[in-house]
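FORM 12-B: Structure-to-Sequence Request
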């Protein structure tokens, strides 16, 4: 594992640990910002992926905005010092309280996901004598070619306004005196690896939808194409920085922009995924009937991705003393059969007390953790502090 500093000190600490390689984190954000600037794109970091204040501080300093999906995410982002005008707020089920809070806070725009929500935003704004900036999230009906739990832009998905409702949306907008129509929003899914093809398809669909609104008298100022850029879970060291330039240049080349229109994106995973490893101690190596289990002090309580999506995370034994390889099932301590981090994984001979690194856990890792079985949260260690 690259970027591991002061291992003696690190390995003497209690585990499990979310270990942040801050140098890689900064290089990743810098690469994204450079590619975004080169292509005239504004980034709103999708804070749901990881909300650690230390990383937010750096992103804020680089001028990023935030993509939120709950009132608490909006509130937290503002508390962390982000400019409310750079906050966008999506989500299929915003409560009245969340809508009013975000409206009063003066967020950049609501990414409105249904006709019903649009009507409620207008009502709440009118009742409070406020105006709300609204972008409409239209379901572009594009296949992200990713895990079925991570697609959001197909007809069957719950997200966004169905294309069939676009004419009705225009009708509602015409009668909404407290809504400023700011633009359109799309997000087709997460962990997209067929970058050029999938995002080209997104742009083809988005171009048609933008044209529809402009032809109906609603100029589209902001075009937000969502997040979704995948990371390489199999080769985190040789492919540590995701393909921001390919993603952004595809969007810029494929979107037919007229003067005055701005492109926005909402990356989460690609900015933070690779820079964190979950370090864990081996409690037991247990010989089962026909399997050998490596039992760790971390499991689905800290990292639920393998249990929830059968997600692959590379695992390394950082303290192995033998070169000999063995096949193991790597499991956690939780009383659930799904608490399995890896099946039939080849590792160097592993023993009680070894420290394993579960790689690429910066996105949707700690934010999705729980205290199930009354377990303590994993501690956080930054490379900068070692
Ligand atoms: N924008 C919207 C509206 C989203 O729903 C999401 C993610 C993003 C942006 C950021 O997408 P990203 O760049 O991270 O792909 N828990 C799953 C991923 C769920 C993604 C939810 N939405 C996982 O662990 O893989």
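FORM 12-B RESPONSE
SEQUENCE OUT:
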């Amino acid at each position: 594992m690259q970027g591991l500093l002061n291992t003696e000190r690190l390995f003497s600490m209690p585990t499990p640990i979310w270990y942040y390689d801050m140098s890689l984190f900064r290089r990743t954000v810098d690469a994204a910002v450079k590619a975004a600037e080169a292509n005239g794109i504004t980034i709103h970091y999708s804070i749901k992926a990881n909300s650690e204040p230390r990383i937010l501080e750096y992103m804020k300093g680089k001028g990023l905005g935030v993509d939120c999906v709950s009132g608490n995410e909006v509130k937290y982002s503002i508390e962390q010092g982000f400019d409310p005008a750079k906050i966008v707020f999506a989500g299929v089920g915003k409560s009245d309280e969340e809508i009013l809070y975000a409206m009063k806070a003066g967020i950049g725009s609501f990414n409105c996901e249904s006709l019903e929500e649009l009507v409620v935003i207008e009502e709440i704004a009118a009742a409070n004598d406020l105006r709300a900036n609204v972008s409409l999230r239209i379901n572009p009906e594009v296949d992200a070619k990713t895990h079925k739990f991570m697609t959001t832009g197909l007809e069957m998905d719950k997200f966004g306004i169905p294309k069939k409702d676009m004419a009705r949306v225009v009708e509602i907008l015409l009668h909404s005196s407290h809504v400023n129509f700011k633009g359109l929003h799309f997000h087709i899914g997460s962990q997209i690896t067929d970058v050029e093809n999938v995002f080209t398809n997104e742009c083809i669909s988005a171009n048609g939808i933008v044209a529809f609104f402009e032809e109906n008298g609603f100029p589209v100022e902001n075009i937000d194409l969502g997040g979704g850029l995948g990371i390489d879970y199999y080769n985190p060291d040789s492919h540590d920085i995701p393909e921001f330039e390919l993603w952004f240049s595809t969007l810029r080349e494929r979107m037919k922009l007229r003067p005055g229109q701005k492109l926005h994106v909402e990356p989460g995973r690609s900015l933070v995924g690779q820079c964190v490893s979950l370090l864990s101690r081996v409690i037991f190596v247990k010989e089962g009937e026909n399997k050998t289990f490596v039992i760790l002090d971390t499991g689905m309580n800290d990292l639920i991705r393998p249990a929830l999506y059968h997600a692959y995370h590379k695992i390394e034994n950082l303290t192995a003393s033998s070169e000999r390889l063995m096949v193991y099932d790597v499991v956690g301590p939780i009383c659930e059969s799904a608490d399995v981090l890896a099946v039939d994984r080849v590792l160097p001979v592993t023993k009680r007390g070894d420290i394993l690194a579960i790689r690429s856990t910066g996105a949707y890792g700690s934010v999705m953790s729980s205290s199930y079985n009354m377990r303590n949260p994993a501690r956080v260690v930054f490379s900068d502090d070692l």
